[in-house]
Design a protein that fits this description.
About 35% of the residues lie in helices and about 35% in strands. The chain has five helices and eight strands.
């Protein structure tokens, strides 16, 4: 039990964090308006691990802290080719946010904006083209980017699923 706790703490220490969005949420009650804050945070180690989380609270620092905890729980491994780009093209949709991810040649850089750029940088992708096609809601764009990265399959993985060698594909 303790070893698992130590491993997760070591993993948390290695992860970088980036605040994607902070929003003010208003609840109108009989007594007036009640303001709270929501935060969306991405974490990653720039070597294939990335996660997204969101949290709400009465104060901004507390919302960010909750979002960080949620992001650390949702860390996933991403498939990369040559530790720089994605294996193939992908198009993912979360809500009305629709994102297109394409692999790029070496040295091209991350051609993406806003939330998609933050998630791709923290995942360790160095050469990629991303285009947001639908809604630009930052939280949904970040989630769609993560879904696109998770859907990536390497040739080795596909060969393993089919029970063949990479050369046979």
């Amino acid at each position: 039990m303790r070893k698992d706790k130590e491993k997760t703490e070591q993993k948390k220490n290695l992860l970088e964090e980036k605040v994607i969005h902070i929003g003010r949420v208003t609840k109108v009650t009989k007594g007036g308006r009640h303001f709270r804050f929501s935060a969306t945070v991405a974490v990653g180690n720039r070597k294939g691990l990335v996660g997204i989380g969101s949290g709400k609270s009465n104060e901004v620092p507390e919302a960010i802290k909750k979002a960080l905890q949620a992001a650390n729980k949702n860390v996933v491994k991403v498939s990369l080719i040559d530790n720089r780009t994605i294996p193939h093209e992908a198009r993912c949709k979360v809500g009305r946010a629709d994102i297109l991810l394409k692999p790029a040649k070496e040295g091209r850089g991350i051609i993406a904006g806003g939330a998609a750029r933050a998630v791709l940088e923290l995942a360790g992708v160095r050469d990629v083209v991303a285009k947001s096609l639908g809604s630009n809601t930052q939280e949904n764009v970040a989630k769609a980017t993560l879904a696109g990265l998770v859907s990536q399959r390497t040739p080795e993985h596909i060969a393993e699923l089919r029970g063949k060698k990479v050369e046979e594909l």
